Amino acid sequence: MNVLRLVPVSFAQACAYVDGEHRHLRAPRGHKYSIGAMVDVIDPRTGKMSEGESLVGVVIVGRPVARLFDNGRTLEVTRCATDGTRNACSRLYSTAWRAGRAMGFTRMITYTRADENGASLKAAGWKEIAARRPRGSWSCPSRPRGDDGVERIGRTLWEAPGSA
Predict the structure, then answer these.
(1) How far apart are CA 118 and CA 129, in angstroms?
(2) What does residue 131 show for φ and ψ, rounded to 5 degrees?
(3) What are the angstrom distances between the C-alpha of 39 and each of 19, 45, 82, 142?
(4) What are the φ and ψ backbone dihedral angles of 30, each rounded to 5 degrees?
(5) Which of 1, 16, 86, 141 is deepest in the core (most CB within 10 A)?
(6) Local confidence pLDDT in tens for the 164 residues of the chain
């Protein structure tokens, strides 16, 4: 039997995990805090638990990217990545919100791509609050930028349960 255990992780550890496991985004530039998940295995013969050797998922929480949401009381899950371990993603979302509320934050948001169903967010009690249409590139002649993989893709905005 496997037991999911949550652990604190540094920003560098979380970024390394995201860069290795996330399907379509690189690690963000900063964070407020990050949380990791490990799997402990219980030996059915002895009943003893062996501690996990490596991360199976991380969640990175930071300031909201959209400046209108950045009011000092709102957090955004900027990345959540797992290796597919059952319930890891929804557990990380739930724990991220509990930690944020414990620090005095009153709202937490995140985005998914329009082609993702948000099953982990729904399982964690999050609510879909808006659909965002695809946007063009941020690149312009005076400040050229590369394509980071999120241009021209619609997004869904989600809010944590009990957010104010």
Answers:
(1) 12
(2) -110, 130
(3) 20, 18, 12, 48
(4) -160, 180
(5) 16
(6) 678 999 999 999 999 999 988 877 888 888 999 999 999 877 667 767 666 668 999 999 999 999 999 999 999 999 999 999 999 999 999 999 999 999 999 999 999 999 999 999 999 999 999 999 887 666 778 877 666 555 678 999 999 999 98
Look at residues 2, 58, 52 and name the one whose alpha carbon lies nearest to residue 33: 58
| Whole-structure pTM value | 0.85
Tokens of 48: 């003893």
Residue 128 to residue 156: CA distance in whole angstroms: 7
Closest residue by Cα to residue 30 from 17, 15, 9 = 15
